[in-house]
User: Fold this.
Amino acid sequence: MSQPTTAITSPHRKTAEFDELDPHGFEKGHAHSHFIVGTFTLRTVLIALLALTALTIGLAQFEIWIQGFLDIHLPWWVNVIGAMTIAVIKSFLVMAFFMQLRYDNPLNTILMLFCFFALALFLFFTGLDLFSRNRIYEFKAGPIVAGGTGTGVNKEGKPIVTAARERAIAAWGPERYEQIRQEIKSHGHGGHAAGRTLPASSTASQSRPRLGPSDALTAVAAPADASHGTTHGHEDGVDRGQNTGVPNRAAPVVPDQILHSSPASGGPSQKGMTPRHTPDAPVPSQVIPEGTPSKGGH
Amino acid sequence: MSTHDVPHDSHDPRGLHDAHGHHASYLAPKETFWATVKDWATTVDHKKIGVMYLFAILFMFFLGGAAAMAVRLELWEPVRVVTSTTPSGTTTTEVTGQLFAADAEGTSIGPGNNVYNRIFTLHGAIMVFMVIIPSIPASLGNFFLPIMLGAKDVAFPRLNLLSWYVYLFGSIFAVTSIILGGVDTGWTFYTPYSTTTDAQHWRVVFMILGAFILGFSSILTGLNFVVTVHKLRAPGMGWFDMPLFVWAIYSAAVIQVLATPVIGITLMLLVFERVFRIGIFDPALGGDPVLYQHFFWFYSHPVVYVMILPGMGIINETIAVHSRKKIFGYRAIAFASLGIAAVSFLVWGHHMFTSMSELASTVFSALTFLVAIPTAVKVFNWIATLYKGSIAMNTPMLYTLIFLFLFSIGGLTGLPLGTLSTDLHLHDSYFVVAHFHYVMMGGTMMGLMAGIHHWWPKMFGKMYAEKPAMIAALIVFVGFNITFFSQFFLGTQGMPRRYASYVDEFQFLHQVSTVGSWLLLLGFLLHAGVFIHSLTQGRPAPQNPWGGLTFEWEAASPPIEHNFEHEPICRHGPYDFESTVPPGWKPEDYPLPPATAPVPQGVVVARH
Amino acid sequence: MTTLDTRPPGPGAPEKAPLWARYQHGHHWRTAADEFDACKLGFWLFLTTEVLLFGGIFCAYFIFRSLYPAAWQEGSQSLDWRWGGLNTVVLLLSSYTMAASIYAIQTNQQARARRNLLITLVFGGAFLCIKFLFEYLPKWTGWHFDPTLAHGALFHFVEGYGGKRPGSLFTYPFATDPHMPLWWSIYYCGTAIHALHVVIGMALIARVYVRAGRGHYGPSHYTMVEMTGLYWHLVDLIWIFLFPLLYLIH
Assistant:
């Protein structure tokens, strides 16, 4: 079938450019080249990545050291933002050089950026809901009575962690339980960071009263018993120096720092949501763990 | 495709002129029956794969439709418990109006309800995952996207075949779950119901796994289409020379690629939650069931745009060709398609107004109004295209008009659902059911019917009987409206969805709706008859029965295996009816408007 | 430097050209370059789906970390950053060797390419071994693996160490924060799905390694190696984010 020449009976919009003499591209494409990323670039990037990994770990260790040694309290977001920034830089290096995005069609880069953008949207809007539940109606962030659907807790109705602890105490007896606990904590069998204890003053681990399912979930007894916190705290002999969220568990009380917190620093950092808990019970002073700073922040 | 020793002929690098029978129609059978079966089972030809998808989808449509008929039958009468005392003093209790008696697993909610629940779940899951999502992209998209671009096949033909087999495999999983008793959670599998009820894990797990596998099929198809549009356009075809059907499929494919993995991880986590009770959706362990809803709808809202965008794409084609007029506002429609795809990711919370915080609900409500804008732009452009067009009244055009009417109603009724204050009353009522049936069925399925009839001559080389098809279309239209318009009233009056029974005052409207469903069934059965008649006794179709200008009308009816004898070159726009004689038409049969400049001496009027 | 500089031997070479030099691109592509670019584009699209898959887990992680920081703090302390750090280094090195193998293929150094692919495979295996033997096994069951035989046998049981399991399977007796089961759910979901991707990546590398031995890949055709490389780098990328988020919380 012959190919007719031009053709158009009236001028209409021109279609895209193409090579009139070789529209089907028969002549081109016998040799094509791809950019070769040289070994020098690859090795430099590797060293940079390893260095950044060391930096991330170093930053984390530094935080522990500075809190223990100099008693400087770094807010929780330092760790997150620092680690995430370094991770982003590392990922940029891997994507640009190892995955050759730098030498590639820009469309691929745009695709990847778009994907991260979609992910960010997902996190943003989900967080928007999850962290603003109590803006209008207090009850939406109130305590959820322990038990819930009845399937998350075990048959006795106890929280899983408590049940595991009691089962072990029943199996070994309280003294052996305590002995094993000390062993695990101090020797760090192949997994526990040996000897690393977080000072009581670390604010990063304090449970801030959260919007959504609250701490009352974990209480087995009635939530209204405000003094339950201290007795509960002393009963199991767990070192209250660490992970000091538990004493605040029993009642929906507001730890001291929240009352003093400024809106800018209170609550999760996402998008400036501020919790507006109004405590409906006076804060019993014995519930506040020792060493808690009374200034704002967490 | 790594053939290492085939001689490379630089004058014919793609072997179009070899003697291996590549000039036969793609439907031509092989020497023996089993050779034909093997050919279809191992084909990488996008046309064959598209046809296989088409028949699978129509089959699943009838399966899901049968479930719908059962649902509507159950709802003919409310379930009434009638206690009567015989003269001898014995009281008997009789349950009337219940079609599906309780099975061995009758729950305490209502003895027959668990069967009803399984039936509507079956209807929803089949229709959503196995019919509507793949309906247009996998069947008509697979067939016509490469042809419209002037290509020989999609970018990754073997991946296309894999998509098809994954679809089959996932469907078998889901259907197995149904046969083995089914799932009663609703197609949305909301926690905690889906993670805590039904002692037999494996039924829910099977169904969820089925949906998970189907997701992969969707992703691979979308991926294929995006790369095809970027890389396989004919010479002379820039982005704005492509038919708008291609723009629509491209936008839908982008959504498929970005959104489907999220449902993948959601379903995976759901299975873990169910089997191992890991607790992320369980409040007793500190999790949040609404988190599941966020994860679920992040995919499921964009996917409704995967459903409708290709339908709209078909309407672009049918409306231009059958009113023989350039589509109004090509760029507006192209950008609106992309815009709908983009905004669709921002609005998923409007399915969860009653579960979310007020702040998030307000934000999502405001964003939901945004998505109406590009949609409305498209509808206005289509109506403007019809204006002063030379409208041919045939089945594709009839379905196009039906689409415009039904989709507009569906879209407009989406507004009270997107408005936070009204949605709080309408949520989970029949209003929602009517709304999504208007957009999904009145939109996508009517678009699919329009596309099937528009491209039937091209795909199978046979014409269909026009009059019976148009009558069937009208029956479908009337039946659809009777079935679903009444449900708007049911919804505003308070009838909740997914209920097997109801208070007496709703009975009349329910009966109206059920009668409508019988009309719908009649209409679709008529269509099936028309299709079968056409395949067996239809008269042969010409190359270009409707006078379209896009590349598929340059191919034979049905196309040869490699689609075109020679790769076409794009020299005119897809809707330049005023200046181009359609391929396969003689210029004297297609007088151009008088405003056209006279043809200069020695210039042949383009055939492409 | 480009692959044009490393063309195969010209006519007159005694032996038949290797498989990669005789490669014919798919008939629906105009040129092999088109096919390669399209494969790359398609594979990047697939990588975006993988990123969004893990995105769901990251979303759950961030939500629950904000809700229960004490549990996350305690959980992170139960993880040994030294194993995590070692795994990170292993994956980074494997990424480097993968990229180096692509360089070798592009410069037609077949033996070097295969060597690097093998090393990548070994690193991947090392990652999995560290993860399963030194992290998952002790945490789940309490059995520790000690190749130095310091405790007499290869495996020794430490009472009370195990039981760190997800959700309702949790039995560790010394947890203080009640949301620990949730932490472990997120930890196992994230790392297990990542480990699954490592296994898939290793399968791809193994296949490429075998085919490279048969001469399928060279400067003018190495699409499959490139795709495998991209997948492996993505696996590394995910771990780059998982490591600080799981192991270095303070």
Summary: Chain C is about 65% helix and 0% strand. Helices of chain C lie at 32-67, 69-78, 81-106, 110-141, 180-213, 223-247. Chain C touches chain A through 93 residues (CB under 8 Å). The first helix of chain C runs from residue 32 to 67.
